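A protein record pairs a chain with a discrete description of its three-dimensional fold. The following entry can be read in just this way.
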Amino acid sequence: MQTRTKYLFLTFLASWLLLFLLGGARLRRFPFFSGRRAEARRSWPRWTERSVLPSFAGAEEPQDGGVPLGPSPHAWRAARRRVYRGSRCRMETCFDAARCARRGFKVFVYPAAPGAAVSGTYLKILAAIERSRYYTADPEAACLFVLGIDTLDRDHLSPQYVPNVDEEIQGFSLWNGGRNHLIFNLYSGTWPNYTEELGFDIGQAMLAKASFYAENFRPGFDVSIPLFPKDHPQSGGEPGWLYQHALPPKRKYLLVFKGKRYLTGIGSGTRNALFDYQELLHNSTFCIIPRGRRLGSFRFLEALQAACIPVLLSDGWELPFSEVLDWGRAAVVGSERLLLQVLRVLAFQQQTQFLWDAYFSSVDKIVHTTLEIIKDRLFPHRSRARFFWNALPGGLLTLPDFSTRSGDFPFYYLQQGRARGARPSPACPAHVLTLSTLAQAPILVLWSCEKLPPPPEKWPQITVPVTIIHGRPRLSERFLPFPEIRTDAVLSLDEDTSLSTSEVDFAFVVWRSFPERIVGFPARSHFWDAARQRWGCTAAGANELSMVLTAAAVYHRYYHSLFTHYLPPALRELVDRLAACEDVLMNLLVAAVTKLPPIKVTQRKELRDRSLPRAPGQVKAAAVGWFGYMPLVSSQLRLDPVLFKDQVSILRKKYRHLEKP
């Protein structure tokens, strides 16, 4: 009996040992064996297990729901090796910067092959490059090359897919293994995994790509761009829904999400019938932006435009233009806590509008931002600091060739904590009189006549230096960035304009408080002529104005650089051909940069009014076509001196000479 009991005990013990050795991991999940730790274990299921979640997709619909299954590690590594053979590429190793140093930063676009299929979106990108100041039609003068082959959609199931790209690019004499080439891509990979497979070897080329995985992104070499729809505007773009410096309205919803906007499937029709998508965006403070089939989503740009703070749920996404943009000031990324302090929310909403207007509202801006980032890498000694990209008016409108110091621009005086005017007093690049209150200001006279200027003894004998600049009979040369202008402020006067020193001094005092605007005397207003379907201009004595003519105005010298180097040559040539409206074009430029109206100041005597030529309509139409919208902003503001026309003693007034006798 004892022997039998012993054998039974040994058999039972051996069975338990085998059970623990072969299935112990599963056995330890039971509370009986896990002890007290089972009491602390949560009771909800593991939502990552597919057995827990039923499928709601139709039989004909791929069961990816916009979130595909992850590929196997082997498949992922194989796809990555095929695309990123130059994964260690940097500007120092895979880009010939010497070519740019010799020829400057110029971009050449390969001509498309006859009969080649090119999508409308890629045509917009190529047009944006050709509209930029960096485009060249000479490949020998180019620093950067862009393919004429449409590489935007590399999903081989898509009708926009272009096959045999490898064979075509290998036949290009300038390909050179992809060196100094830039490839644009919006869609990579295919169902079900949507990896970053492009279907051809990019070699040492840079990628400007949407839905970029951070682990595949080559910092300082590739550029992450946003995913934008095919109907995204070429230029200009729709403005944001929140006005600059405006207090955001109280919104109905705190957090919203609406998926499957463009797709069919269960629930799509119901959602579209119950909720208006634009109304949801407009009435929400936060918008959830989860990943779609790829990391990027169309919802991202829509939320930015609507001033709906994006809550990004897309792990591993290298955000668009993250090299220069500080997304921590405009979006909630990943698992960051949702900070609901009022001031933080308002700042986020304002920043979404700035980023939308500055970089994402049109294809032109997306492409030009990409080119400017690459240019800053090539010339780091003349590159923009990150601050310029994340503060008004943005990196595209702060030219590093002018300066790399924020204090040299007219936009950042509030951040500097001082008013303008600490620098020398204004210079005068047109026909001007001397300024008694600004005795150190040099006077520049732009002489555009065919006759020679008078000899030096014929000029007024004054203590202020007078410099004669011989120019060509072109009105646009009035706004060239002359090196003789060494001051922030520029007092521009026509040859037949006469102002008193009190008027000039008061205009300069006002400009010191608003250095980003044009401050002056003769004003004009624009209007839409419905009968002729065009923009018009009037000098009628109304209370509203949108332009201050540079016949007598003070503005910042930086606008000379923008006028010459930022505006397209076609606009300046139009002004020269019409021999009119260079001041109208300057007002359009400043309004587009600042989103603010000019400022009219008091004058003792109205300047002689001139009959308006018909040219303003042509100039406005051409400028609106380039900007994509009418940038002029109307205002009813006029600034007068303190005690102006008040019934007090004239001795108490600083600008007593401004009042008519």
About this structure: The first strand starts at residue 107 and ends at 109. The CA atoms of residues 393 and 593 lie 6 Å apart. The longest helix spans residues 2-27.
